[in-house]
Amino acid sequence: MSDPYDPARDGAKMSFAKDMSYGDYLGMDAILGASKPLSNAHDEMLFIIQHQTSELWMRLILHEMNAARALVSQGQADQAFKMLARIARIFEQLNNAWDVLRTMTPSDYTTFREALGASSGFQSHQYRLIEFMLGNRNPSMMKVHEHRPEHQKMLLDELAQPSLYHVALRALEQGLDVRFDDGVYRMDAPHTSSDAVTEAWTRVYRDPQQYWSLYELAEKLVDLEDYFRRWRFNHVTTVERVIGFKRGTGGTSGVKYLRRMLDVELFPELWNLRGAL
Length: 277
Fold this sequence. Notes:
Layout: H1 22-26, H2 28-33, H3 44-73, H4 77-101, H5 106-110, H6 125-134, H7 149-159, H8 164-176, H9 195-206, H10 212-243, H11 255-261, H12 268-272
Helix pairs in contact: 3-4, 3-6, 3-8, 4-10, 6-7, 8-9, 8-10, 10-11
């Protein structure tokens, strides 16, 4: 009978009394220690980890989006394509997570819902930052963050700079030698469709070989919004499956509010042009 495998014989380091370990590098004590249910309900752990991991993925989205926006604004859109593609795949990952949460039944949820108090995903400052960065800017949404001045400052700072779509439109202007009305670049309101922008993007799609970089940029944005829309849709159906049409814990109308969000288009011109081709 052979001896049990000993990884030390192959050179694996086995002692970390003086060196950084895997858990040290990742801060695992803090991460795992943050999952603390407030009730004895079995499914509360699922609910907490689902939302904690979503916030971690959103942190990465913000990291990637900031870098992509900077590259596009510097005329280096090609280098941003990988980041934009990564953001879309992160939303796919977030989409898949709803499948896990949907294993929780309405009866399961009622066993710990009271423990949530008035807390709600509606209050996620990172989600609000993502929306603001993508161009869906509604300053009235900031009031819910007044109790955390550092979060409100992040949102105010974001409103003071161009959105990701703004810098894409600047690249479009430069690539086609056109100029859009200043209203297209409004910083304090959601982006609304512009005929001039639709016409410009249509030119790109009618001759992708000539405007290949802009064409690729447009498709990366469409891909990103496609996955974002799926994430929103799965959010709605998950909430409806678990709580029906009850009000959300944060006081919103729940499913009715989430359904309204399905109608929001981040890059409307990129969708509208398809009917003109």
